[in-house]
């Protein structure tokens, strides 16, 4: 009897897995089609200098408008795209699209592009970046690449060589979601970085969360000592913005300052940057 129950359990488990596998395969085929049919687009979230509150650039964030599922957020398809390897094609599309769009922006603004660890390991990023910049006539100084710490884990030496080559072009390298991976601080020494983006969880913490504040303070101080720029991610309140300013963080990003928006809305925002400088403090979430 026990055996029979056990088998049922296994069958249930397996049929669940089968459904999952079918769903994943569907989604995978859908992603292939999405690339061909132009269902992906990029949103742009503004980045502001502290303390001047000037607009300095935008982070490009992928969006998938699925024909039946509607808007699928990146957390739901990027991991699968990484597992199946399709991220290399999606990533190349993102890089090209972001460079194309940024080539229409005023020259002082930069675009920041997320790069998956899989892209870094499986593709020739140096060649891809060189080509994208040349094709769209974008100077390297106007492109920043955001990598997560997981990209640094395997084959650190080869990755480091790639990053060094990219930096010698003039492209800047940022470490995204800083503080969420393990041995974050060790990576600061090991890799040449231009910027760290301090993860939202440290910015977002309650005012009485002493340990998050301590991390925030330590990270900004160390970055300053190492001449690495800092961006605070996920700024949602004036209080958080004031804290970052106080700690000497150089750039801020978050719903308080502007949500991810269409390329068109981003271009409109650039035109009103004068007004922005005065108005941004008073602009609440969702108004941009
Ligand atoms: P990320 O690179 O850390 O991007 C920041 C995420 O935080 C974005 O979510 C953004 O909408 C969100 N965010 C910004 N400000 C705030 C805030 O004030 N509060 C809160 N709660 N959230 C805020 P999104 O667009 O859903 O992207 C999620 C993640 O998906 C990104 O995290 C990145 O890891 C990945 N991703 C997005 N686009 C791409 C891409 O083109 N390529 C790759 N490889 N990954 C991407
Ligand atoms: Mg990012
Ligand atoms: Mg981030
Ligand atoms: Mg993040």
From TrEMBL:
Residues 24-274 form the EAL domain. This is Possible signaling protein with EAL, GGDEF domains. It comes from Aurantimonas manganoxydans (strain ATCC BAA-1229 / DSM 21871 / SI85-9A1). The chain holds residues 518 to 805 of 808 of the full protein.
């Amino acid at each position: 009897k026990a055996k029979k129950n056990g088998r049922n359990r296994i069958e249930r488990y397996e049929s669940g897995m089968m459904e999952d596998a079918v769903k994943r395969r569907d989604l995978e085929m859908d992603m292939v089609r999405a690339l061909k049919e132009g269902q992906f687009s990029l949103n742009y979230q503004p980045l502001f200098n502290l303390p001047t509150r000037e607009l300095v650039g935008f982070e490009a964030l992928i969006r998938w408008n699925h024909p039946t599922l509607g808007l699928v957020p990146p957390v739901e398809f990027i991991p699968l795209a990484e597992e199946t390897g399709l991220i290399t094609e999606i990533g190349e599309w993102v890089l090209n699209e972001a460079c194309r769009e940024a080539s229409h922006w005023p020259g002082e603004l930069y675009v920041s592009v997320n790069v998956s660890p899989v892209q870094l390991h499986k593709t020739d990023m140096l060649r891809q970046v060189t080509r994208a910049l040349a094709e769209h006539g974008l100077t390297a100084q106007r492109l920043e690449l955001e990598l997560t710490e997981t990209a640094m884990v395997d084959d650190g030496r080869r990755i480091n060589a790639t990053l060094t080559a990219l930096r010698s072009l003039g492209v800047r390298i940022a470490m995204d979601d800083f503080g969420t991976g393990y041995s974050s601080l060790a990576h600061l020494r090991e890799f040449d970085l231009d910027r760290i983006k301090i993860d939202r969880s440290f910015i977002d913490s309650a005012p009485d969360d002493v340990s998050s504040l301590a991390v925030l303070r330590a990270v900004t101080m160390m970055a300053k000592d190492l001449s690495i720029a800092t961006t605070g991610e996920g700024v949602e309140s004036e209080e958080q913005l004031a804290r970052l300013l106080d700690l000497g963080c150089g750039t801020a990003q978050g719903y308080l300052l502007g949500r991810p928006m269409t390329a068109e809305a981003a271009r409109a925002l650039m035109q009103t940057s004068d007004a922005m400088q005065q108005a941004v403090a008073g602009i609440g979430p969702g108004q941009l």
